[in-house]
Every structure is written in structure tokens, then in C-alpha cells.
Amino acid sequence: MATIGIDLGGTKIQAIRLQKSGTGRRLPARFGELADGGDYTGPVGSGYEVTGTFRLATPASAGPGEIADAVAAAAKEAGVDDVTGVTIGFAGPVDHGRGVVVRAPNLPAFGESVSFARLVQERISIPVALENDVNVAVAGEHRLGAGKGSRDLVGIWMGTGIGGGLILDGSLRRGPHGLAGEIGHMVVRFRGRRPPAGVRGSVEAYAGRASMQSTAERWAKRGRNTSLLRIMKARGRDRATSGVFHRAYEKGDSVTVKLVGEAEFAVGVGAASLVNALDLDRVVIGGGVADRFGDEMIARVASVMRSHLIAPDDAPDVVGARLGDLAGALGAALLAEGL
């Protein structure tokens, strides 16, 4: 028997078919790099194997019906024979219990309060569940990746915004409103910076890539010189990607260096607050920004975190995510085992 995991984002739909293999082979050390193309098949450790995979572009201007068609098509291409359940990781707030998309920030034509799990299930006749995209990625890292062996961890995903997920006592913690682990909205500075959307003074206001770009643009209008925006335009981008930030940082651009330092500080303080409150044993950091900046950024975040702990001698490990592009789909497939 097998399950299917779907990672549904604003730009891509990634489907994988996962089944138990009995081999017990360890996760390849370079798995994150191997999975970056989204077409990896083979062992993923702990007796699991990816036996089918498919990726296609998200029809971003489409409504729920057309996107459900695309998700169903991806699942079928990955292989639905003997599949017992499908879980979809959705980039936005969801009601897991009802299978409802509460809001779709990356899909403007999608609408709100859509019974999306039901729409997909009608197309493939297999039980379908819905989950937040960072929750499934954190679940994947917990079972197969950087969080393996931990009972209590937080996953922090640094991208356009800041996403988070919690594993407590070995299980994914959603909370009564599905908002557990949303570290991006933790306040780290009273009456601080406003993000493009969300809570004033929050981690996301300082560490979300969209907020960092907005701050750079505001400072540039006030006369601060920065190569960040010039690099963005030279690459034909309308947004500062993780690669643009990394290039400007490598060139020593003072604005970018300051923004990245503020981001690392905000994430470190937020992580420390969660560790102090919940007594966690691991912090896993992923997402496009962390992947691009690598181990040096993770080490700086860890240093900030330790300096804000009530028990710094017992600081949890801070590690980078390992599953690359397949983290979300793998975690979704694992969560589908109980359907």
C-alpha cells in the first residue's frame, strides 16, 4: 500500500507516491540537492521509498475547480494504484478537520472558505486531507530528515514570509485553530516594523523576504544607497529573491547586511521564546532564504537564540532542513498514512 503527498504552492504542484520498502536504508547525505528538481525516486530512509513523482505549474489565475483538476492530474501521474490516502500541503491557513482552505494568499482567484479536500477527492475517489504547507514540511523533516529522533521541535521556514510548525511529544501540534507554531507572527519588538501583511513588530516584519525588500525600498527612497535593488532589476526580477539577497550580501552591500542581520536576530529571538516556553530539543530551519545562505546563517541564528535562553547550557540543536524541494510532499505523504 502507498500514499500520495501533494505540495501545492503559488507556482508549482509537486506530487510524490510513497510506500514502505522494508530496506531500512539511510537518507542519502545529499538528498536535499538530489530532490531539488522534484523528480527524485528511490529510498528516503527509515524503510520508505518514493516510487512515483510528478510536478507541474500551478494555474495561478484559476479558481478552485481548475486547481483541483491540476492536483488530481498530478496525483494520477504519480500513480494512484493501491494508494490509501492523499494529503495536500497548502500554502495558506487551512481548517484541517474540515478540509477547508480558509484563505489563499498566493492564489488570488481561489476565494475563501473552499472545501478543497472534497473537490480533489471527488476527482480521484481516494480519501483526501488538507494541511498547512509548513506543517507538512516540518512533519517530513521530523520523520525522515533533520528532525529525526526529536520528540519536541520547532521548524522555522524563512521565505517570502516566515512559516513555522511544531512537533510536541512526537506528534504534529496544530492547535484548536490550526495556528500552532506560527513563529512568523510572534512579536519580537514592541511597536516595531510593520510587515506588508501580519503583526507589527513580528518575526516576519524583520525576517520575511517580502518585508525585507519593502524596507530596502523605503530606505532607498530616503536616500540610502543599496545594490540590492540594482541587482534585482539587472536580473529582470520584480522581487528580491533569496539569490538576489545573497548576491548583495556577498558584495558587502550595507543595507542588505543590516537587513540580513536583523532577520537572523528576529528568528533567533523568536526561537528562544519558543524554547523557553516549550522546552524544545531541536530547532530546524528551512525555506529558500536559509537554504541559500546555508550553515553560516543557521550558526548566527543559533548564537542569537542561545543568548536569549533561560538555560543556555541546555540549548537545543539548531540544524538546517535536509529534504529540499520534497520536504512538503514527503511530509504530506507520511501524514496521509492515517487516512
Structural account:
The protein has 339 residues and is an alpha/beta fold. The chain is built from 12 helices and 13 strands. The protein has a 6-stranded mixed beta sheet. The chain has a 5-stranded mixed beta sheet with strand order 11-10-9-12-13, sandwiched between helices. Helix 2 crosses helix 3 (116-124) and helix 9 (254-278) packs across helix 11. The two termini are 12 Å apart. The relative contact order is 0.16. The model has no long low-confidence stretch (mean pLDDT 92).
Q: How many domains, as an integer? A: 2
What fraction, in percent, of the residue positions are helical?
25-40%
* CATH class bucket of the largest domain: Alpha Beta
> How large is the radius of gyration?
20 Å
Strand numbers in spatial order across the main sheet = 3-4-2-1-5-8
In short:
The chain has helices spanning 31-34, 64-78, 116-124, 133-144, 203-207, 209-221, 228-234, 242-250, 254-278, 288-293, 295-307, 327-335, and strands spanning 2-8, 12-20, 42-43, 48-57, 83-90, 94-95, 100-101, 128-132, 153-158, 162-168, 171-173, 282-286, 317-320. With 339 residues, it is an alpha/beta fold.
List keywords for this structure.
globular, 6-stranded mixed sheet, 12 helices, 2 domains, Nucleotidyltransferase, domain 5, 5-stranded mixed sheet, alpha/beta, 339 residues, 37% helix
Q: What layout of secondary structure does this protein have?
A:
Layout lengths: L1 E7 L3 E9 L10 H4 L7 E2 L4 E10 L6 H15 L4 E8 L3 E2 L4 E2 L14 H9 L3 E5 H12 L8 E6 L3 E7 L2 E3 L29 H5 L1 H13 L6 H7 L7 H9 L3 H25 L3 E5 L1 H6 L1 H13 L9 E4 L6 H9 L4
Parallel strand pairs: 1-5, 5-8, 9-12, 12-13
Antiparallel strand pairs: 1-2, 2-4, 3-4, 6-7, 9-10, 10-11
